[in-house]
Design goal:
It is a single chain. The protein is built from 2 helices and 4 strands. By secondary structure, the protein is α+β, with helices and mostly antiparallel strands. A hairpin with a 2-residue loop joins strand 2 and strand 3. The C terminus is likely disordered. It comes from Haloterrigena alkaliphila.
């Protein structure tokens, strides 16, 4: 069973929309250029990438901000400090939760 979270941290905090694609690619074990239709939905089906990037344009002002979205079956959390967490919402570390229905 895989770990529930993958973290992507960048020293040069660029566009969060790009960081989401990079984190999902890492989680999927594919190259970032593979995260495109038809195998993957465009990011804009989950969030407006331009609006997300504008929101985090000034990291100092957004240091404590957090945006949560679902993309490609993962829960994605973008933090104002540049971290992107990708977790599998069906992962139950205790093994006692309800089964996840598709």
């Amino acid at each position: 069973m895989s770990a529930p979270l993958d973290h992507s941290t960048s020293d040069d905090w660029g566009d969060p929309s790009r960081a989401i694609i990079e984190a999902v690619a890492a989680r999927e074990g594919v190259d970032v250029t593979d995260i495109e239709p038809p195998a993957y939905e465009p990011l804009f089906t989950a969030i407006n990438p331009e609006a997300l990037d504008r929101l985090f344009r000034n990291p100092a002002e957004m240091a404590t901000a957090r945006v949560v979205l679902e993309y490609e079956g993962y829960e994605v959390v973008v933090h104002g400090d540049g971290r992107v967490e990708v977790s599998d919402p069906s992962f139950d570390p205790d093994g006692v939760g309800q089964p996840v229905e598709d």
